[in-house]
Write a structure and sequence with these properties.
By secondary structure, this protein is mainly alpha-helical. Among the domains are: 4-73 and 386-421, no CATH class; 83-192, no CATH class. It is 61% helix and 5% strand. It contains 19 helices and four strands. The chain has helices at 34-44, 59-67, 76-87, 91-108, 111-124, 141-151, 153-161, 173-196, 207-218, 227-243, 247-258, 270-293, 296-312, 317-327, 335-348, 358-364, 370-380, 387-399, 409-421, and strands at 4-12, 18-27, 53-54, 71-72. The strands form two sheets. The protein has a two-stranded antiparallel ribbon. Helix 4 (91-108) packs across helix 6 (141-151), helix 8 (173-196) runs parallel beside helix 10 and helix 12 crosses helix 17 (370-380). It is globular, with a radius of gyration of 28 Å. Mean pLDDT is 79; it is low at 47-52, 296-311 and 320-331. GO terms for molecular function: ligase activity. This is E3 SUMO-protein ligase ZBED1. It comes from Labeo rohita. Keywords: Ligase. InterPro entries: HATC_C_dom, RNaseH-like_sf, ZnF_BED_domain_contain.
Length: 422
């Protein structure tokens, strides 16, 4: 077990730009237990106020989030990968994929067959692409392998037919139908995995709309379609709905979606619209109260400075009104109405175009919706997948190697920061 552990965070700065930061590199003399990680996270986030959204599915991280009483958002990419694995549990699929793997392996370890495949591709006017091998840890690699085999099926058959010992590797029509059913079901899903794994734009607000898109069109069962395709789609959709039906997760996704000018309350169920609006108003009012309250020490120092400067110069008529206003302890009138008006104005404005960046929109409308923009920074900074954090971990692993294992944590922080930002 590595002695260092990088605690990373996604955040949106005041200019509404997403940044991924190695928040702290901690030295763990003991194992990476849930208790140790929970304590490290509390220390690292003591001065920050994120939305407390975790996207890592490791058992120790799950326990750490539970100990800190944080809402844990499951990594969408990992859950989609597990949903696909669950849907692939079928004897027909096992047989067809097994043949596909053997076929790809026979070309991977034979330069002669690679050359024959290239010649066949030229003769049949097929794309000169190599075959792809499945990697169990890479999402969508099985679909990529199947898609390439189907694309080069005629060239592969031509090469294998010339060798009696390899003719058994040619897929039968039943295997071909199975591979086509798998490819048809999985091909659209890989695009969503890649898109939601990015770290340069908002992704958490798209989780619920994507799930709705899956159920309404992409994974919708077609009565006229193949039975195997419908079975795969049903299993994937059922698995995803089961994993994201937790009330706390639903509330987090609803809040993120509501603060995205693309969607607002469009994908919030009717029975949840009123509670989500109430929570938005509550958090907006709390934000206003914190701003109005301010630091007590700073206010006392300002009053002392003002008193000193006032005593030195001659008072004007306006200064008496200024003192009276400052001494008044009452809050600005109609504060609740102002917050409600801000939320209502936001919900009634035109939706943002689907290709536009929501952070650019919030940057332009930050002064129009001052309290909502703070909530947007809080919620939209949560990544939908753990891919950005894993990239930071990989960067840390490349820096702290066996030959460079005596780094102090602060030096690892600096090197990871430079590697990610230069």
């Amino acid at each position: 077990m590595e002695p260092y552990m990088s605690l990373t965070i996604h955040y949106i700065d005041c200019d509404f730009t997403i940044k991924s930061l190695c928040l702290q590199t901690s030295f763990f003399p003991q194992d990476h237990t849930g208790e140790a990680i929970a304590l490290g996270l509390q220390e690292a986030l003591a001065l920050l106020e994120p939305a407390r959204g975790e996207t890592n599915s490791g058992s120790n991280v799950v326990k750490a989030a539970s100990l800190n009483k944080w809402v844990r958002l499951q990594c969408f990419g990992h859950r989609l990968h597990l949903a696909i694995e669950n849907a692939m549990r079928d004897p027909r699929i096992d047989c067809a994929v097994g043949i596909c793997k053997k076929l790809v392996s026979s070309f991977s370890y034979s330069w002669r067959r690679k050359r024959q495949l290239a010649q066949a591709q030229k003769e049949l006017k097929l794309p000169e692409h190599g075959l792809k091998t499945e990697c169990p840890t890479r999402w969508g690699s099985r679909q990529a392998m199947i898609e390439r085999v189907l694309e080069q099926q005629r060239a592969i058959s031509q090469v294998l037919l010339s060798d009696r010992k390899s003719r058994h590797l040619i897929p039968t029509w039943q295997d071909t139908d199975t591979l086509e059913a798998i490819n048809k079901s999985l091909q659209p899903l890989t695009k969503f995995t890649d898109a939601l794994s990015s770290e340069k734009y908002v992704s958490v607000s798209f989780v619920k709309p994507v799930l709705h898109l899956f159920s309404s069109s992409i994974l919708k069962v077609n009565d006229d379609g193949p039975e195997l395709t419908n079975n795969i789609r049903t299993k994937i959709l059922t698995y995803l709905e089961e994993k994201y039906k937790d009330p706390e997760t639903q509330e987090l996704l609803d809040m993120a979606s509501a603060l995205d000018p693309h969607f607002k309350l469009r994908f919030v169920s009717e029975d949840r619209v009123t509670p989500i609006q109430a929570r938005l108003l509550s958090e907006m009012a709390a934000s206003v109260s914190m701003v109005k309250k301010g630091p007590s020490d700073g206010g006392t120092a300002d009053r002392a400075e003002d008193t000193l400067s006032t005593s030195k110069r001659k008072k004007t008529l306006g200064s008496f009104f200024k003192i009276t206003e400052r001494a008044s302890p009452t809050q600005p009138p109609h504060q609740e109405q102002a917050v409600a008006s801000e939320l209502q104005s936001y919900l009634q404005c035109a939706d943002l175009d689907s290709e536009e960046n929501p952070l650019d929109w919030w940057r332009e409308h930050q002064r129009v919706y001052p309290q909502l923009s703070k909530l947007a920074i809080k919620y939209l900074s949560i990544p939908a997948t753990s891919a950005p954090s894993e990239r930071v971990f990989s960067t840390g692993g490349n820096i702290v190697t066996c030959l460079r294992s005596s780094f102090k944590p602060e030096n690892v922080d600096r090197l990871v920061f430079l590697a990610k930002n230069l």
